[in-house]
Amino acid sequence: MTHPATARFHVVLPTRSAAAPELPAFVTDVRPALTDPAGRSAVAADLAGLAGALVPFDPGGQESLAVAANVLRRTRHLRVVAGFHAAAATPVYAAKLSASLQRFAAGRLGWRLAVDLDPAAARAQGDFLTGPDRQARAGEFLTVAKGVWHDGPFDFKGDFYEVAAGGFGLPLSASPFPEVQLSGTSPEALALSRRHADVHVFAEGDDLDALVPELPGLRYGVHLTSLDHVLDHVAEYARRGVSEFFVPAEDVYHLGEHLKEQALAG
Fold first, then answer.
1. Is 53 exposed, middle or buried (0-12, 13-18, 19+ CB in 10 A)?
2. Within 13 Å, how many C-alpha atoms sit on residue 247's CB side?
3. Measured between alpha carbons, how far is 220 from 240 in angstroms, rounded to an integer?
4. Where are the alpha helices (DSSP H) in the chain?
5. CB–CB of 2/240 below 8 Å?
6. Which terminal residue of the chain has fewer beta carbons within 10 Å of its beta carbon, N or C?
7. Counting beta carbons within 10 angstroms of the beta carbon of residue 217, is it exposed (0 to 12), middle (13 to 18) or buried (19 or more)?
8. Distances, alpha carbon 155 to alpha carbons 2, 42, 142, 180, 249, in Å
9. Whose CA is closest to 204, among 221, 190, 219, 222?
């Protein structure tokens, strides 16, 4: 039986900077550059007491781990998850970069691995792997990243990665490994989550009654595409065991000052 879960809200941060509206030619533009919308939204979410923020993987946007590093620097309590593609770097490099960030951010960094990319977007990133091999590679990626996070020697030989006598020493190995968030509804995606995820994130409309029993022992999240009727959605999902709610960042004030407290009270 699934029990009601306490709601924790996470904002999905923008990864692109909108261009400022054009001014007439006779007006001197002294407006500050809109270069850090993610940082501003994250600071607002931190002050509002929200649980976290997601910097999604965006093939056409800014690099998520770099944005996450800036957001971690600008906030004190917010947990920040960076979404990235397994082909973006080797697991050893991603782990070392993240271990370094964890030291500066008191262990607040998490990972959202983007596995089921649109094939055209994947090829544009230089990745031509398709089908279930993507989940197999993601599994090896996480196995290697977790393996080298601790003292070595760590050895691994798989279909996609090979490591000989790897492993971090102190101080890199002292920080916690990033919380791992995964998604997807295919049998391969569910199997990957069972092996490696801390949180499995669903989309609105996914059949949670069928999928949640396939993922015992995990926390569950869902992306809400709008704040309209959000309290009704939160109550409905919480009854089915969902505790993590990912919402758009357009109205952090309204979410923090009103909806969060009502959801927690309900």
1. buried
2. 31
3. 9
4. 37-47, 64-74, 91-105, 119-124, 133-148, 187-196, 208-211, 230-239, 252-254, 260-265
5. yes
6. N
7. exposed
8. 39, 38, 14, 22, 42
9. 222
Would you write out the chain's pLDDT as a tens digit for each of its 266 residues?
454 568 899 999 988 877 777 778 888 877 666 678 888 889 989 998 899 999 999 998 999 999 999 999 999 999 999 999 999 899 999 999 999 999 999 999 999 999 988 999 999 989 999 999 999 999 999 999 999 998 889 999 999 999 999 999 888 999 999 999 999 999 999 999 999 999 999 999 999 999 999 999 999 999 998 777 777 788 889 989 999 999 888 777 667 666 666 656 55
CB contact at 8 A, 72 and 101: yes
